[in-house]
Design goal:
352 residues; alpha/beta; TIM Barrel; 2 domains; nine-stranded mixed β-sheet; two-stranded antiparallel sheet; 16 helices
Length: 352
Amino acid sequence: MLKDLKKVELEITSDCNAACPGCARTQNIDTLKVNSFSLQDLQRLFPVDDYSGVEFKFCGVLGDPIVNPDCLEMTRYLVSCGGFVHFSTNGGYNTAEWWEELGRISAENPDNIFIHFCIDGHKETNHIYRVNTKWNIVKRNIEAYAKVAAKKTAAWIFIVFDHNEHELEIAKQHAESLGFEFATRTGMRNSYHDWVTKLGKKDKKVEQIITTTGKKQHSKVNVVKELDDFIEEYKSTKVEEEKIISVTNSIVCKYIHEGEIFIANDLTLWPCCFLWDSAFKNKDNILEKLSTQGDSWNSLKDKSIDEVLEHPWYKKLLVESWHPYNDLHLPRCIKTCAKNKAYHNEILWQKD
């Protein structure tokens, strides 16, 4: 229920200024619908109350939150209610004045705002993965924020690829000069796949392969590959119940175990970003399976958060569906959250 939530991830828009090759948005641009929800939508879902102890994460699967025109007002509103607002952004959009205003909100509420600037490189390389971002704009924006913001309210998060490793130290020094924390991030997707990025002028784009090798890979790749093998095994043959229980008991669900929900740009409510990603792609026929729950069963356009969370799927069927032979089974739950969330990103904070 709303009063029991500890974290809410808000995909306040599916719009973005970038075209990262590993992003579901980039890979499915032909089927993407650009949606944003408004300050009024947010206030309806989270009426004035004391949200102290609740983290509101502006992130998402498809968009960058700072592209939503109501982003600043949403931040002010949630902070005024005692909520903690955590941004994840590429930093390459909006004006310097916009970022200074966010910095002022931070200065007034230093314990209620934290920003992850996802900048994967420096001047030479950031645009290679963060396609369409421009270094001079990113630099201008992070410096505008740092100029007026409270200290220790931002971090530079750097995904290390083979092509940008040589800029790691200069990025770290730049972050330190701004008063930002600095961390490297390893994503399972980047350790599973090489990405193809297209760079250059519109009529002369050149493909470049983005790779991640050696220590830049996720430390639990082999664990997740074992889960992949397990999924293929139970799809093709009958697996012992003892083995199934061992795996499903290792699931750590963001909603069930950690009190988190995900609200997508179309105002549907999910237990996590992973199942929304599956719904967007209709992976493993998730939409057909969940259509059995009725029309708009998880839509917040005409229901409250509590009403959706009272639905049988959240109350009982979600946990039951972890079993491979359940009619509502979604393999994504095993792949991304079994083995104590082995699939999840690894962040290594760099300390002096």
